[in-house]
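Issue 218. Parser rejects a valid record. Input:
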Amino acid sequence: MDIRILVLDLDNTLLRSDKTLSERSAVALNSCRQKGIRIIFASARPLRDIVPYNAVFTPDAIVFHTGAGICENNRTVMSNAIPPDDGNAILQDLLNRYPTSLLSAEIGDRLYANFDAKTIWPFTQYTLNDLSRPFHEPFYKIISSIQSPEQFSEINHLLPSTAYARIAENRLILIMSTAAAKLSAVKQLCERWDIPLKNTAAFGDDHIDLDILTHCGVGVAVANAIPEALEAADYVTTSNNEDGVALWLEEHLL
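Output the parser choked on:
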């Protein structure tokens, strides 16, 4: 198996449920690096919430906001965001159609929310804002709570051509630029590093990982993944709390 790049989702995949990167996982990743394999952290998280893990293991690149940005060597080398006019229009549509929805927006390196965001993300820093006034910077991401089974389909129909929606954790709708996707970001890094996509192995658990699980050279789902991810993957390893990523690496690459 000629794997030269590992693409690793973080929450509920590489990280345990307490959000820690285990020593076993760090050792496995370091062993892969010693074999010349490059490591990409690919997450829906903002960059500010991924960088602290560098104290345990520093990846070769970070794909953040589900592919809206790529960081390499502590420098953002690509940014795909929703234009301000479109982002503001989406927010106003959501506020009008779903007045009780919990809404937030990642703009620049700050999260703005019309509710106590710590009820969903306990350790995140945010700015309380009713989101009614226009913003002047591009939007990395707009996030809505799910109020009804029909809401996801309704939101997809109201979005401009510059944006698309995905479900995350079965409770949130993520709205991002059409240019923002984990697979697109991975392809750009493959081109930068002159490594074919077929020589990548991707690990994930959720809807936003389906593209990398399906189209990377090898797709690996953890046992706690959603049914769609389990079906899309080439391999299923043990759960994130059982260090499933490390186990797969030990069995197949080390």
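Fixed in the parser; the record now loads. The mean pLDDT is 93.
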